[in-house]
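Human: I'm a chemist; would you kindly supply sequence and structure tokens for a protein?

Assistant:
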Amino acid sequence: MLDQALLSRRLTGLAVRVAALEREIAAMGQAAGAWWSGPAAERFQAELRHRRAVLASVRGDLHAAAALILTP
């Protein structure tokens, strides 16, 4: 049987880390957009969009998993 409290803490920790990564990616995008242009910048921005999408998917999975945890 799963320890629900432990699982809940781990999911919360993962959600916090995902949020931190999202902030880092946003900061990278803003910094690059301020001084960089051309095809390389477009590829970089595309990669940032991809990473944001992956993180959003992970965040959705975390929320779905948290919803499955039975509350005492």
User: Anything to note?
Assistant: The longest helix spans residues 4-35. The helical segments are 4-35, 39-68. Residues 25-67 form one domain.
